[in-house]
């Protein structure tokens, strides 16, 4: 069901290294949380869609990835304008380390929530139901960060639904990862 391409796989490997750097060098113990999400997401994604990693991105897939990445970023911009988005506080990290954490979180969450959760729901429900349920679970997960801030949780739910929709349409994690990375980095800046 999912297309593992070289870019999403490379980003996953780089994220493992970022987690190791944040944990060992910066001594940011919470870096283990996204690492566990990433590894679990990769494992469950592979179990549900075993197959080799496609070494090349087809030209049409590249264009589709760019288009859907742009669509996700546009949706995030609209959500951010309409709903006050309050970013994760990373006060004890430098800007560069906070950006690295944003990359790590994006890749980890995409493998887990789109690669595993959305794909799991797609095997049991219709695509629209899978998209909505995945977005709701994504927002519930973000209560750890936002607590009961309704506007931020609504943003997370809508963003999760958009990312799930894009995953369903492309069957690829690359556009969702790229959009999520951009969103997280912009939240830090």
What does this protein structure show overall?
The chain has 189 residues and is mainly alpha-helical. The protein has one domain (6-188). The chain has helices at 6-24, 32-48, 59-82, 95-122, 127-141, 143-146, 150-170, 174-188. Helix 1 packs across helix 4 (95-122), helix 3 (59-82) packs parallel to helix 8 (174-188) and helix 7 (150-170) packs antiparallel against helix 8 (174-188). The radius of gyration is 16 Å and the shape is globular. The termini are far apart.
Features of the shown structure:
single chain; 189 residues; mainly alpha; 8 helices; 0% strand
Major sheet description: none
SS class: mainly alpha
Count the domains.
1
Instruction: Specify the number of helices.
Output: 8
Runs in which pLDDT lies below 50 for 5 or more consecutive residues are: 84-89
Topology:
Blueprint: H1 6-24, H2 32-48, H3 59-82, H4 95-122, H5 127-141, H6 143-146, H7 150-170, H8 174-188
Helix pairs in contact: 1-2, 1-4, 2-4, 3-7, 3-8, 4-5, 4-7, 4-8, 5-7, 7-8
